[in-house]
Amino acid sequence: MKLSIGIISRGRPNYLAATIINWLTTADIKEDLDFVIALDDDDKESIKTYNDMQHIITFFGASSSLITWPPMGYINLYKRNNQMLPHYKGEVLLIICDDNYVTTPGWDRIISNDVNKVYDKDGKDRSILVWMCGKNNEKQHPDMYGLNRKWLDIASNNFKNYAFMHPGMDVWLQRFATEFNL
Prior knowledge:
- With about 180 residues, the protein is of the alpha/beta class.
- It has 6 helices and 6 strands, in the order E-H-E-H-E-H-E-H-E-E-H-H.
């Protein structure tokens, strides 16, 4: 199952590089990874870092794309997520930050297997929220989340509307999924 990993970063090229390498090297099926990197167009150092890393991503068999726009500010990160939507190729979109690391080897296989279990039980028309909480996470909501393509298609009306509509999308998604038993 192809998994897209959306990463938004600004002014932290070392974090960006470490995050990409971490998620790439801990995955089992690297060819199924699709990194979509969103950077502000004035963040030249991070853009250079991404360009320098492309050969590593390609070497492992993953795909990647770089999307740049004028700066929007932290409160508008959800707008950046919407701008990234048309660039995702995966069945599941994982939204992470440039300082989210994974420590579970084979995390990609675990997510794919869990999503496929839901598909086997309920069919592929089921919208799925992937809730990723770290082992040190004491919050009642995920720091990182994933959505399957069906969720994104419904939420965005096939990309005609915003799928992400709130600065605190992680909390909003968790509450929405709980309230509607998704």
